[in-house]
Structures are given as C-alpha cells and as structure tokens.
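Lecture notes, continued. The same structure-token format from the folding unit now serves as the input rather than the output. Read the line below as a description of shape only.
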C-alpha cells in the first residue's frame, strides 16, 4: 500500500501567501524527495537536510536580468560542449549515490547551473553535484544563500559556487578543493570573470549591469 504524500503545514503555506517572504519560513518536519515530488505546484520549495524551505515569490527584474544574461553568455560559450546549462526551476538532488531518489532529503533549485556529466541528467532534473552553480542574491534570500545553501553545496562537492548581488553589484566566488571551500574571492560586477571549472567560459558584466534598472 502506498503511503499518502506528506505536505508542509498549512500554517507555513498561509504565512507565505499572506505576504511574509523569505527562506526563514520553514516547516520543521523531516521530508524527502518522495514527499516533495507530490506537493502542489502553487508554491516552490527546496529541501535541505529534510527541512522544507519556502522560496520567495517572483524575483526582482534585476535578478532575472542578471540570471538571463549570464545564462545566455555561458550557453553560447558552451555551444559545442557536452556540458548542459540549465536555469531555474530545475530540481537538483544531492546526497549519497547509493540512496534511492525518493529517500534523498536535499533538493535545490539553483538560479543557474552547469552539468558536464550527462549521467547526472534525468527526466526529473539533475541527480548529483553540478560543476558550477550561480545564485542571484535577493534581500529575502541573502542569509540563506550565504550560509545554509553554501554548506549544502560544500558537502555535495559543487566545484564552483557564485553568489551575485545585483543591488550591491558584488560577486562572491567559492571554489572547492576536493574537501571544502577555501577563502572566497570577492569582486565587483565589472570587467570580466572566468568560470574556473569551465575553461574558455568568461562572463562579461557590462552587458548585465547596463540593463539594470536605475537605483533610486
């Protein structure tokens, strides 16, 4: 007999719908991907170590501009490569390789990612660590992306993790040495930035920042 799907509590869902934004809203029950994939699609969640984090509503225009322009540049650079460039929403399942999908308790939706191992691509998304991840920071997600998500990506061995802040126009880069992330590199969103784990891929920031809305 198949168990009924388990859903995040109604109180948590109502809090977000009532206008309380951000990753701090979460249900403290332990969930797995088996629960997650049966949830309604009206709200987006991520799972980290079994905790269901509600994702904020639609991001800002500058957030989407940054993600879209970088996606275009990276996809163009990798046109003749077997690497796949993907953009949210796509599920990335992280955990032990010998664990069944439905038993995994970490499912993330990075803003941008690159996967160079075709064996990690599945009809449902990505199973295993991407080679490169970019998260675009918003006020509601900044703390989450720089702490909780950072730790999850580090444990999974994601080789390079970028955090781009369109408001402050700052980029933070974490590179994995095989065991942990070292000291991050921090730079302005200006000039050019090579993607260390993707030879030949360079992100040019002028086409990105020139499309940002004027700051008030």
């Amino acid at each position: 007999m198949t168990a009924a799907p388990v859903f995040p509590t109604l109180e948590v869902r109502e809090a977000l719908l009532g206008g309380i934004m951000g990753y701090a809203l979460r249900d403290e029950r332990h969930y797995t991907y088996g629960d997650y994939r049966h949830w309604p699609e009206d709200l987006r969640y991520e799972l980290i170590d079994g905790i269901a984090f509600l994702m904020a509503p639609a991001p800002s225009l500058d957030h989407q501009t940054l993600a879209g322009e970088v996606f275009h540049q990276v996809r163009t650079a990798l046109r003749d490569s077997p690497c796949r460039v993907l953009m949210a929403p796509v599920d990335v399942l992280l955990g032990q390789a010998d664990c069944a999908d439905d038993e995994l308790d970490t499912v993330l939706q990075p803003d941008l990612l690159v996967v160079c191992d075709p064996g990690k691509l599945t009809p449902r998304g990505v199973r295993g660590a991407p080679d490169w991840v970019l998260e675009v920071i918003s006020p509601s997600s900044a703390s989450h992306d720089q702490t909780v998500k950072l730790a999850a990506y580090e444990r999974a061995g994601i080789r390079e993790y970028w955090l781009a802040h369109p408001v402050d126009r700052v980029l933070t880069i974490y590179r994995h040495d095989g065991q942990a992330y070292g000291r991050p590199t921090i730079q302005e969103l200006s000039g050019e930035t090579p993607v260390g784990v993707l030879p030949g891929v360079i992100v040019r920031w002028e086409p990105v920042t020139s499309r940002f809305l004027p700051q008030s």
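Point for the exam: Residues 1-5, 10-25 have pLDDT under 50 and may be disordered.
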